[in-house]
Amino acid sequence: DSGVTQTPKHLITATGQRVTLRCSPRSGDLSVYWYQQSLDQGLQFLIQYYNGEERAKGNILERFSAQQFPDLHSELNLSSLELGDSALYFCASSVAYFSTGELFFGEGSRLTVL
Amino acid sequence: SQQGEEDPQALSIQEGENATMNCSYKTSINNLQWYRQNSGRGLVHLILIRSNEREKHSGRLRVTLDTSKKSSSLLITASRAADTASYFCATGGGNKLTFGTGTQLKVEL
User: Fold this and answer.
1) Digit-coded pLDDT (tens) for A49-70
2) B97 touches chain A (CB under 8 A)
3) Is the dihedral of CA B46, B98, B5, A10 positive or negative?
4) Helix, strand and coil in chain B, % to nearest 5
């Protein structure tokens, strides 16, 4: 158990809909990272938050947004969903803003868009 | 985009055999990490090797790094069925952590 909690584990929705994925980092970790894993793109970094502030953006679509709350949990919002958004979405955390070591990953949220 | 490419893409061995997977990367690095992912599960950190290290061991894992060739290898000795998983190399750190394409390892009884 990494200590990173993600909900929901699975969700199925239709195109055009909006979903919110939730992540609680390990106790004491200030950085939260969101990754998308799909068969064709592999693991792609989406966005990082550190202590409530956005710190870095990766390959995140404009239809996607995220935030980190004062209690350090984070939410990833995916809107106007398309079939191609079907993927595993992972949250990871680390103590520091820029971790040169390991990231601790949650079990992921599997999104299926029909 | 992927920083690393793992080779082979898939590997099937018998329990007790050794498994070797390779990772090539494109840019200079400070360290390289290996992660394991069981089917549909989260990634678990296995080992980190720094750019000034050539070899590192952790239990049944042995990692080598050749910065001149921009490559790393992960050796799992005396494999077990429980080692069945995908293995990813990752370079960079923090929000720059970039994963390779992964090797799917299947260990058969």
Assistant:
1) 999 999 999 989 999 999 999 9
2) yes
3) positive
4) 5, 55, 40
- Contact indicator for A20, A34 with CB cutoff of 8 Å: no
Which residues on A lie below 8 Å from B43 (Cβ)? Answer: 43, 90, 92, 103, 105
How does pLDDT run across B85-108, given as a tens digit for each residue?
999 999 987 677 889 989 999 999
B33 CB neighbours in chain A (<8 A) are 101-102
Residue B24 in tokens: 């090539």
> Is residue B84 classed as helix, strand or coil in its secondary structure?
coil
Cβ–Cβ under 8 Å, residues A6 and A109:
yes
Residues of B in contact with A101 (CB under 8 A): 33, 48, 93
